[in-house]
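Margin note: ligand = nicotinamide-adenine-dinucleotide.
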Amino acid sequence: MKILVTGGAGFIASHIVDAYIQAGHEVTVLDNLVTGKKENINPKAVFYHLDIQDAQVVDIFAKHRFDLVNHHAAQMDVRRSVEDPVYDARNNVLGMLNILQACVKTGVQRFIFASSGGAVYGEQVTFPADERHQTQPYSPYGITKLVGEKYLFFYALTYQLGYTILRYANVYGPRQNPHGEAGVVAIFCRRLLDGQQPIIFGNGEQTRDFVYVKDVVTANVKALDRKDNEILNIGTSTETTINEVYEHLNALIGAGMAQKHGPAKEGEQFRSVIDYGYAKKVLDWQPQYDLQTGLKETVAYFQ
Ligand SMILES: NC(=O)c1ccc[n+]([C@@H]2O[C@H](COP(=O)([O-])OP(=O)(O)OC[C@H]3O[C@@H](n4cnc5c(N)ncnc54)[C@H](O)[C@@H]3O)[C@@H](O)[C@H]2O)c1
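Resulting structure:
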C-alpha cells in the first residue's frame, strides 16, 4: 500500500512508519520537524520537510497517489493549547483540513487519525470511559482533536473517505521527548537517570492510563485493513497514579530519590482511564505490555 504518515518524525508515528515499512508498505513522511527529529525517520521512507498547512501539500498527494493517510502531525501539548489556542487550532484544525482536502482532490480512500482518549472526554463521569462517554474537553487541544473527529464524519459522509479514529490514552516509550511539557514517563526517566530531582505536580494521586507505544503501533497496523468509520479507544483500562509511575521508575533505575511535589497544574484533569473493550471486539486489539514491562524497555532506551 502507498501510505502517507504525517508527523512521522515524531515519537509515536516514527514507530508506526517503521512497522509499515517492515510490513512491506511504501511510506512517505510529511513533517515540519517542530518537535520531531530527522534521526527518527526511517531511511526507507520518502521524507518531505513541510508543514501540513502548506499549499504544496496537494502536490505531494498528486505525485504519490496515496491509498491511505495516517495523520499524526499535530500540536500535542495541552498546556501550550491553553496558552495559545490559535496556534493549536492552526495546526490541528486548519492543518488537518488541508490534508483532508488533498485526500479528496487525489482520491485517497482511507484515513487513520490519532485522537486523544485522555483529552476529548474531559473530566470523566464513569471509569473507565468507553467511546460513548460524553465529550466535554477541558482544553483547546481536546477541542481540536474532537473537531478533527467531526470533520472526518463529514468527509466520510460527503466524499466516502473511510476512517478509523484511534483515541489514545497516555502513550509512553522510546523516542518520547523528555524535555517537553508532556510525557511524564520520559521526563521522570531522563531526570532520574541524570540524578536530577523530578517534580510531581500536586499530590501525585491524579491518575492516567499508560499505554506502551508498541501496543499503539499494533493498533495502527490492524487499522490498515479497515474503513468502516469507527472510533476506538486505545488504552489499557487500568488507572495508575503519577506517584505509582514515579516509584516504578525510581526502583527500576535505582535512583533512590524521594518524591518531591510542586503546585498542582491548573485545569489538569484528575482521573483519566479509557475502556479498550470495543477495540478488542472490532479490531481484535488488546494491550500486550503491562506497565512494568513497558517501563523497563523505556528505561533501557533512555539509558
Ligand atoms: N503522546 C500521547 O500520549 C498522545 C496521546 C493521544 C494522542 N496523541 C496524538 O498522537 C500524535 C503524535 O503525538 P506524539 O506524542 O508522537 O508527539 P510528537 O510531537 O512527537 O509528534 C508530532 C509530530 O508532528 C510534527 N508536526 C507538528 N505540527 C506539524 C505541522 N504543522 N506540520 C507538519 N508536521 C507537524 C512534529 O514535528 C512531530 O514530528 C499527535 O497527533 C497527538 O495529538 C498523542
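The chain has a mean pLDDT of 97.
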